[in-house]
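Re: the request from the purification team.
They wanted to know what the chain is likely to look like in 3D before they choose a buffer screen. I agreed to run a prediction and write the result into the notebook, where they can find it.
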Amino acid sequence: MTEQTIKFRDPVVKNVVNKFVKRSDVGFEKYGQTLDTERTTGMKNLVGYLEDVQEELMDAILYIQAAREELRDLSEEALIKKFDEEEI
């Protein structure tokens, strides 16, 4: 494991970097190896990585759709609430 000190000018970038590190830790806990180890030992090849990317992107599309539906539902609820308040 290596250690590095980074100076962030943008807290958004810092938050994303921290999430990457946490995600890496979760992966290591789950699989007991790093992506580098997986790659350099041949445990996964290019086709395997491309399949992983495709699956993750498909999941992302599903999450986007679910979020859009949630936003629509929240907007509808807000309109109903506003309408109900105006009737009083």
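For the purification team: The chain is about 80% helix and 0% strand.
Please add any questions underneath this entry.
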